[in-house]
Amino acid sequence: MASPSWLTDTFAAIMLVIALSCVARLLTSSLRRREVELDADAVHLVMGISMAGMLVPRLDPAPNGVWDAAFALAAAWFAARTVRAWRGNAATGWRCPHPLPHLVESGAMLYMLLAAQNPAPDNTGKSMAMPGMGATAGTGLARFPALALLLAVFMVGYVVWLGDRLTLVSPASTGRAARSADENPAGSSGDLGWITRANARTAARGTAGCGTQPTGHTSASGRTILAPRAAACYKIAMGITMGYMLVTML
Amino acid sequence: MSDNTAVGSARWSRRPATTAAAAEWQARDARRWLQLALAAIWLLDGVLQFQPYMFTKNFGTQLLAVTAQGNPQVIAQPITWVAGIVTHHPVPTNAAFAAIQVLLGLGIAWRPTLKPALAASIAWSLGVWWFGEGLGGVLTGTTNPVMGAPGAVILYALLAVLLWPTARTDHDVAPSRFVAERPLGATAARVLWLVLWGSLAYFAIQGSNRSPQGLHDMIAQMASGEPSWLASIETHAANLVAHQGLPVSIALTVLLTVVAVGVFLPRPAARVAVMLALALALVIWVVGEALGGIFTGQGTDPNSGPLLALLALAYWPSTLQQSAATSGEGTANS
Description:
The complex is a heterodimer of chains A (250) and B (334). By secondary structure, chain A is mainly α.
């Protein structure tokens, strides 16, 4: 049972728009002397194209091996960044201050790509080769479906977390308020302590945020951040789409 | 505010730079975390609603229409009517259902729309409880808390009420004993808890739930379509309660009753009751509900287990201002 084509087409279109917006952000940042999270925007650019190709196979421009390698590299990069953040080393320059969600996203992409290439046998015991997510959606042929569910739950939680912080990155917000919100755990019972500590340190250099930085905030290089709210919105859209793709693999 | 930041703010804002929006962004407290958990569950529901099965006629005939069975005619007829509409127009109706739930989740997560989203979620939950779950089967005499009674969706509405944002915080002069008491007061919140868990205790001992194989049959059928590890859990649990329907139902009733009255007891006992509620929620979710049937491709939501756990957390007696609460308990007799 496959998903309706209009649904996968819609999600694919959204992913391509996000990929284009990432290109625009990367080009605009240097032209207008605004800073972006280069590593996060770059991986989301690749992710948007890959997800569009998984949803609608005819949009896939590269062979599977290319995507596998790309997201394996991305996962390794963000894993290293996560370890550094855990040890209290603040992200500097163009590096994303919140690498963990991007690590999980990269891992989820690898999982979906490998599952599509190597689906679990169906009830008849035969492996069925089904190219593209559009054909595998709803087939329940994912190996380790519990992992798909866990990843989907993480994505949903990440989207909610981003939504909660959206007002923090409104155009009227200031860097000081954002920094204090990140640094002050008082009354914030249950915040992931190490993330808060990492936030505090990165906030000190002016890049606090949910992987996005509040407008008007300056980075260590002295440049302001480019469209943080738009970045948060595209991450929300990407998270929902990824959640959908993972759930349809159950 | 540094000069650079001030310049940056002035440069970017189309209106005068202000710290009001950011200054109002309060760090998350326990209530906010529970609201976010509720938002995440709504969002997950919306994503699950996008599954291919939901866009087929089977959603209307096999999931919705069957909930009318056993209900009074005044309840059943509208259910059948709605199920008929969904069956004949599965694509647009299900797309709308999914979009609504996604928007509810995002609305609760985004602070400016928190109240409207919670209010909308109450209305939506009540509608789905009737037309989608047949009032959870509470009027049919066949419902069982292990299978999801009184209907998961009504718990969304209850959570929305109990997590309604008020001015009271953990640091108010009259400190909250638990999160759920803030909107309605401690007495009303405890009564709601009593009604919920007391009704579960009542349902556990009803009718066919007392039969020797009743509970066994319910649990055993949950194994169908599940991954092998989960099906194994279901099968073993079903074997454990085989021919033990009556004593297991009695034991479950006792435990649910303890949970129901536990919140009225002193703090240590109340915590035990809440922990027991959490444990029961976990057992119900895994054994009785098979994680909501999500792995079958036909699960529209994770069912009542996670929601019962969320409710329990909302009633967790707080350690904050414990000494102040103790000193105030003699006068604040609520």
